[in-house]
Amino acid sequence: MARAAARLGMAVQTVSTQVRELERSLGFALLKPAGRGLVLTEAGMAALRQADQIFQLGEQLPEMVRDAASSPTVRLVVGISEGLPKLVVRRLMQPVMLEPNLRLLCHEDEFEDLLGDLALHRLDVVLADRPAAPNRNLRLYSHPLGSSALAWYAPDALLAAARRGFPHSLARVPVLLPTTHAAVRGRLDTWFEREGIEPRIVGEFEDSALLAVFAARGLGVFEWFCFLAIYCKCNCSKSTRL
Hints:
Blueprint: H1 2-8, H2 12-26, E1 31-34, E2 37-40, H3 42-70, E3 74-81, H4 86-93, E4 102-109, H5 111-119, E5 125-127, E6 151-155, H6 156-163, E7 174-178, H7 183-195, E8 200-205, H8 208-216, E9 221-224, E10 239-241
């Protein structure tokens, strides 16, 4: 407490009083003895995390006010579901970038977390590979923006083996797939089960760009898809569609 008071340039009694007042208003102890000092309780750690956010917002306030006063801007905050192809997102957002004085903010996260931020008005829109599930507590609207077929591609070295007896050849050749975080993976697993195929999976990737890098190096047969936004072709070099 003495070191904290010294850093703040305040008397120890003043700091102690303010801490006690804060604890009294919150109804929980924020500090507890530990040896010759004090440590945060669980409630104290939660309060510290919230305080960090408050201070961060305070630090951003002058810049936000200055930007708003200097030039009017159109602010669009977009949530992007993890695993969506980056080139697809870029093509989808490209027309938006023509808006004068636009300030685009893109945040990438898991689908459910993005929906929570959307419900709290931290985001304006979410781009995802699936519609939002019906929820009476959330006023969210899903709009399909487009679709495309699934396609399988293979590097030159695996092309002949992959084409021979396709799709059952996927049980013999190395296969690269998105992880289950992508909606398309569930459809693929259903298709594998229906066709009686147990694919030889050698790699699973959350990031579609990383999957494309591995595929471009010829490390396996891979599935390429476009989510609900816009049609996209695979740009991996030296790969042929099956």
